[in-house]
Amino acid sequence: MGRPTIVSIPGASSLPIFSDRLVAAVTSRGYTIHTLQLPSVGLSEGPQEGPPSSMYDDAALISSHVSKLADAGQDILLVTHSYGGTPATESLRGLSKRSRRDQDLPGGVIGIAYITSFVPEVGKSAGSIKAGFPGLSKVPMAVDEAGWLYYTDIPGVAAMSFSSMPPEEGQLWAGRLARHSAASFANPLTYAGFKDVPVSYLLCENDLAIPPIVQQSIIDMIERETGRSVDVTSIDADHVAPLSSPDTVAEWIVGIAEKLTS
């Protein structure tokens, strides 16, 4: 089996610039990686026309992109970060390599690799996961009159999500976060895609936005729902590991790809 194509699904409010370091690190290791910009991600400044997109719009974009790669005979490893874990999971209906083989179709998804990602149970949403831990600190944000989430305290966001960076650098990146659809965090999952493919999870030990206790609860849920072990790796990283620790994350991704194709 040849090397799979990596399809990276970013977190909330993440514009393509947030993926540049990871793309470079993965590419330098001989793999092709595609990073998608989700419809639920708005603009950094100013209003965006039309209502905010839903999580289902994000899932449809992922499904369309992955389907085209699979139709061309490619195997795909889905890699997700933060909010991106939810639409990526939703998108997997009929896209696993096994499912496509049963339909006499080429290619397909051979695994999903979650990086400190929100993965809800069917019937629950990304936003409901952390709500189950009321004592935890919240990322400082609000919702405008059009339904877009925005960040109300850039230094506070930097301290939570970019905590391994020097304060000035963290605040620079936090200031680049775009608006994000509030509805996408409330849309419930309708398909448990993690049941269809092998699952890996990168647990980020210093994540203050999705703390380890929340990440572990997600891992436990997936193992309970699938009856299979999740391939868990723990690293000394903050919430934005693809940005702050790109080489470590790239090594993890490549390691998973090699295990799945050996």
Notes on the protein architecture:
The chain has 262 residues and is an alpha/beta fold. The protein is 38% helix and 16% strand. The chain has eleven helices and nine strands. It has helices at residues 20-27, 55-71, 85-90, 97-102, 126-131, 154-161, 167-174, 182-186, 212-226, 241-244, 246-261, and strands at 5-9, 33-35, 75-81, 108-115, 141-143, 148-151, 180-181, 199-204, 231-235. The chain has a six-stranded parallel beta sheet, sandwiched between helices. A three-stranded antiparallel beta sheet has the order 5-6-7. A hairpin with a 4-residue loop joins strand 5 and strand 6 (148-151). The longest helix is centred in the N-terminal third of the chain and has 17 residues, at 55-71. The protein is globular. The chain starts with a strand and ends with a helix.
